[in-house]
Amino acid sequence: MSNKMFSKEEWGTALEGLRDSCRIFVPVKDGDFHSFVPFENGTVPDFDLKNSRLSPKSVVYPQSERMFEYNLDPDDPEANVLKEAPKEYLPQAIVGIRPCDAHAFQIVKLNFDNPEYSDPYWVRRFESTVLVGLGCNEPCSTCFCTSVGGGPFSEKGLDALLFDLGERVLAKGLTEKGDEFLENAEVGKEADESILKEAEGLGSSASDKITTDIPTDRLKEKVVNELFGASFWEDVAFACLNCGTCTYLCPTCWCFDIQDEVMGKQGDRIRNWDSCMFPLFTLEGSGHNPRSNKFQRVRQRFMHKLKYYVDKYDNGVQCSGCGRCVRYCPVNIDIRQVAELMNEYETESA
Amino acid sequence: MKNPYLPYPVRIDEIITETEDRNLKTFKFVFVNPEDEEKFSYTPGQFAELSVAGKGEIPIGIASSPTEKGFVKFTVNKVGLVTSHLHNMKEGDVMGIRGPMGNWYPWEEMEGRNVVIIGGGFAFTTLRSGIVYMLHPDNRPKFKDIIVVYGARNPGMLLYKDELAEWEKRDDMEMHITVDGTDDPDWKYNVGFVPAITEEKITSADDAVAIVCGPPIVIKLMQPVLEKLKFPPERIILSLEKCMKCGIGICGRCNLGEQYVCKDGPVFSMAQLKELPPE
Ligand SMILES: Cc1cc2nc3c(=O)[nH]c(=O)nc-3n(C[C@H](O)[C@H](O)[C@H](O)COP(=O)(O)OP(=O)(O)OC[C@H]3O[C@@H](n4cnc5c(N)ncnc54)[C@H](O)[C@@H]3O)c2cc1C
Ligand code: SF4
Ligand code: FES
Asked: What is d(CA A87, CA A66) in angstroms, rounded to the nearest whole number?
């Protein structure tokens, strides 16, 4: 695998040039926050970020996506027959994605690409995407990636990893895809020993800055129905507004809805991100709703991430430790505390 | 890459109004592309997503049996957006079906055993599929006694009336049709709720598997009856309903604990359900 180093200026030039090889998404400053946008003429990438407010999951899994189109014109012999919406899966790259957000793609891949069914939209777009990570020199106070199998310089799920070393940038290729991407950079030099050493030091000092340690080791051994029936759920959910912010910002939330939309005689079947925090999520035609109470919905969110996923896939928790839900929940509901409650839970006497 | 969200186009071949209140209609579909019929190869107990362009998709149990060739049948209760639209469609109209989906009744386990089928209300659809399947001459010898208890609110609300009458006459199965109540003085069958009639007619759980489908209240009331008869939880089979979208275990809507009702179900044994969160 190739390692390349750049001066900051060279890196800027390299990135400009790389736009010819594929569509690149970069972080930009957007008001008080950062977001990932396509790198076009006039776009000013800003790699001096904590993390983007919304995770870049939408680059692979758009918030709203056309699946099929059809027409309802009775004179058309093909009326009412669904046709694939035309799509191109052009090569694309997310440059500056944080390791936790790259790890998140690995977590959700087990859902979208399982032995029985592959979601063609997710899988094809994921396969055409290169993930070029940016290690976190200064993790936030809400980060807990190290508790869930990641780390500020974790290579998990990444094709290449960038180290910001002040004046210089080191780009480490981690997969063939990543190498190929870096190969296309016209400037930059082969990395030397000293920069590799410096990068290593940066990695371990960043890990040391994450002091939160969320225990998840005992989740698997808990009896699912005991956790489900635990008395703490009403308390956990007490202040929740069911705003859905947590699920929209989350890089590992994958639930979607499918809807038809019609304009005149033309129609589309589209899918949209959905949220288990909304009562409509499970409202049945008869009026019955198995999760009509908010605590039931809050419980579903945490049980899915911290118990059902753990049991189903044996791949750890469905959380990459990015801390967004902790930071942006308007009422400060904190997955770290809930994980601890669940992990430490002892059977209650009846 | 195969797109599991793309429905097969079908044409509505026949629409039968099943019940007096006209709220239940059976739709018989033929595949627009005959080769799709083979791809849609199913087992009784499975369901499909019925797709109406412009309205959406709904999960509906397959009411026909794979032993019936050339068409697939579904019986739809009118409740909301898609089902109401479907009720207004006409024979000859084109729509879609996607599937088959989910698991099925445990046919292998039922072979060589007595089969007790208990249905309440319009949840009788996939049970019809199962009965037609078992009564097929190729399959009938594989099962011992077949006993059916099926009830509706009143005689006008029973589904598949012609078939029920035929099954009544057969001597290789036992039919117990019942209604909650009726003012028809000529009513020949039982009057009483399904659990009560079951308790009266079924005498033993020996070497028997029970399949129960019905509204939540019937399922709940059936439990003590079947337990009293000494059906072990492994041999009480239920079919569940949850809101669904994708039908293939990806959209995250229909979970019961770690299981997706659309893919790992909809058929579960009582023993399995006891291990899952009671949602
Ligand atoms: C496995 C399975 C088998 C079923 N079999 C039958 C059957 O044989 N006959 C029958 O009449 N009904 C059956 N149902 C129920 C049927 O799916 C709902 O009545 C139907 O989806 C309501 O759609 P709607 O658009 O008319 O209602 P709306 O209330 O307008 O619903 C909007 C959407 O919500 C979802 N939804 C709402 N209620 C339900 C529900 N109870 N179950 C699943 N999704 C729901 C659907 O995606 C629907 O399109 C079955 C449900 C499941 C899960
Ligand atoms: S962000 Fe907070 S308040 Fe909003 S739904 Fe999530 S837990 Fe509830
Ligand atoms: S309906 Fe999508 S997961 Fe079951």
From this structure: 9
To the nearest whole Å, the CA of B90 is away from the closest chain A CA by 13
**Of A182, A208, A234, which residue constitutes the final position of a domain?**
A208
A257 φψ region: left (φ > 0), alpha (ψ -120 to 50), beta (else): beta
* Residue A129 shares a structural domain with residue A156: yes
Residues A112 and A16 in one domain: yes
Looking at the structure, tell me whether residues A259 and A329 fall in a common domain. yes
B115: pLDDT confidence band, cut at 50, 70 and 90?
A: very high
- Average confidence (pLDDT) over B195-209: 92
Q: Is B105 helix (H, G, I), strand (E, B) or coil?
A: coil
pLDDT digits (tens, 9 = 90+) for A186-200: 888 888 888 999 888
Report the C-alpha gap between B274 and B263 in whole angstroms: 19
- Interatomic CA distance for residues A165 and A179, integer angstroms: 20
Mark which of A175, A208, A241 sits at the end of a domain.
A208
ipTM associated with this complex: 0.93
Neighbours of B17 (CB within 10 A): 12
Picking from B226, B200, B232, the residue whose alpha carbon sits closest to that of residue B214 is B226
Q: Assess if residue A218 is contained within a domain.
A: no
Work out the pLDDT band at B129, boundaries 50, 70, 90.
very high
| B253 CA to centre of ligand 3 in angstroms | 5
Closest chain B residue by Cα to residue A292: B279
Counting ligands in written order, which one lies closest to the CA of residue A247?
A: 2
Map out the domains of chain B as residue ranges.
8-101, 107-239
The per-residue pLDDT for range A145-162, each reduced to its tens digit, is 988 999 999 999 999 999
Contacts of A287 (CB under 8 A, 6+ apart): none
| CB of A110 less than 8 A from some CB of B | no
- Domain extent, residue A296, equals 224-343
In a domain, A219, yes or no: no
The highest-level CATH class for domain B8-101 is: mainly beta
Q: Is residue A214 part of a domain?
A: no
Provide the pLDDT for residue B217.
87
How confident is the model over B134-184, as pLDDT tens digits? Answer: 999 999 999 999 999 999 999 999 999 999 999 999 999 999 999 999 999
Q: For residue A327, is it within any domain?
A: yes
Q: How many domains does chain A have?
A: 2
Does residue A95 or residue A350 have the better pLDDT?
A: A95
**Is B19 within 8 Å of chain A by CB?**
no
User: The whole model's pTM is what?
Assistant: 0.94
**CATH class of segment(s) B107-239:** alpha beta
Q: Which of A124, A276, A312 sits opposite B1 (nearest CB)?
A: A124
Which residue from A228, A258, A296 is facing B246, i.e. has the nearest CB? A258
